Amino acid sequence: MREPRVGVYPGTFDPLTNGHLDIIERATHVVDRLIIGVAANPGKDPLFPLDERVEMLKEQIALMSRGNGRYVEVRAFDNLLMNFVTGCGATIILRGLRAVSDFEYEFQMAAMNARLNDDIETVFLMASERQQFIASRFVKEIARLGGDISSFVPRQVHDRTLQRLGLRVPKLATVGT
Asked: Of 80, 93, 167, 176, which sits with the fewest C-beta atoms within 10 Å of its C-beta?
């Protein structure tokens, strides 16, 4: 019997988008155990604190189907990605690609990581057609400028994002109103 394939999907997830969830769902078909690594990354000046980003991910993972028998967990980290990956017992880093422009940066990062530890493989997953254009930085900018982000993020993340920005959260429509 082979060892279970353990993979890490790292990111800041600020905020978590439907594109992230698409990659997470598809990553569970590549590995037996998926660890979502939420990077502290204070250099990116995150909108949400680390603990809240972890909480939002855990909420959404709980809602996802576990029908494929894969195990998913969420962990925060604030160290070198390769140290986090080896500390998790993982041998695969999963990265999502949206466009060709993502590839150059991701390719350089994968090459650097391979130099640090050539026992860790990087696997790229293309974002699905419906999610290719979604980026957290665009979601935040659209929300800040009063645009509708509801098709880019889960409902709970939508509401938290608007609250975090000090914007009014629209009430859900009810039947018969």
From this structure: 176
Q: What is the pLDDT of residues 134-162, one digit of tens each?
A: 889 999 999 999 999 999 999 999 999 99
22 belongs to a structural domain: yes
- The answer to whether 140 and 161 are in contact (CB under 8 A) is yes
Q: Is 44 among the residues known to form the active site?
A: yes
Q: Is residue 174 part of a domain?
A: no
Name the pTM for this structure: 0.90
Whether 176 is in a domain gets the answer no
Residue 170 in domain: no
One of 44, 66, 130, 137 is an active-site residue; which one? 44
E strand intervals along 79-145: 92-97, 121-126
Number of domains in the chain: 1
- In terms of residue numbers, what domain contains 84? 6-164
Clarify whether 151 is annotated catalytic.
no
CA distance 99 to 125: 11
The answer to whether 20 is a known catalytic residue is yes
Which candidate in 75, 98, 144, 164 is catalytic? 98
